[in-house]
Amino acid sequence: MVVRDVRGWAALGMCCVGAAAGCGFDSELAARVEVPVVVQSDGMGELVNAEGYAIRVTTMRVAFENVEFTTSGEMHASLWSPVLDLVVPTAYAHPGHYAGGEVVGEMNGRFVVDWLDAGAELGLATLLEARYDGANFVFTRARPGDGIADEDPLMGHTFEIAGEATRDGRTWTFSALVDQDEGRRVIGLPFDLEVDEGADDVLGLQMLLFDPSEADTVFDGIDFAALDPDDDGVVELVPDSEAYNVLKKQLQVHDHWAVTTE
Questions:
Q1: How far is CA 88 from CA 15, 85, 106, 114, 132, in A?
Q2: DSSP character for 30?
């Protein structure tokens, strides 16, 4: 369940309604478009990190919430036409300034996503007509009510990660349960789409293990052999270790996330 404090929005809505009435804004509501959002798994392919390990991810599960879609340009028709909606906010998208862009679309709720489950439907995003060029979301930690079992290893954590790393003919299996701070936002995911009434696009929420713009990976800085002092081929990235903190920080970088259209 999503609990939202509506008092600030209600006050803003009343001001906007008064302004609209006084300034002659068009009272026609901007069109809303509901667009499916699915898991986009193309970024889960094998990669080589800066230390020369060929890495194959076998588990990548993530807990997050409340995806926002933003524009830094002008909306169609009237950005201010849906001001009445601000009086009683709903799950529908609403105008709101955030991090250099206007939030004009959203998909609210909590999500526990298996990023290897290509095409799995996450839900419906509600978008106002606009040119979109960004997105944001919020990290959380899996908890009861998220649709996973109490004994699930992801319970109480943000990421469950596992895979294999190979170098010089040797292979290490690795795993990590990574905890991001509750409420930490990832801001500015690349997203380029013109949304019009009647649009039939499908959005893909994508995680990129390899960032093509910077040519780096989320595993850069991790030397798996050095993390295996007993030489048994098994590596666990434990909290507060240097390798864990490097991975945690890189998973927060917006360049490793994107929204695609299908």
A1: 13, 6, 16, 34, 24
A2: P
Does residue 224 belong to any structural domain of this protein?
Answer: yes
Number of domains in the chain: 1
Strands (DSSP E) contained in 140-183 are 159-167, 170-178
pLDDT confidence of residue 30: 67
Domain of residue 174 covers 7-261
pLDDT in tens, 122-160: 999 999 999 999 999 999 999 999 999 999 999 999 999
Average model confidence (pLDDT) across the chain: 83
With respect to residue 1, please indicate whether it lies within any of the assigned structural domains. Answer: no
Structure tokens at 89: 């906010």
pTM of this prediction exceeds 0.85: no
- Token pair of 106 as six digits: 């959203």
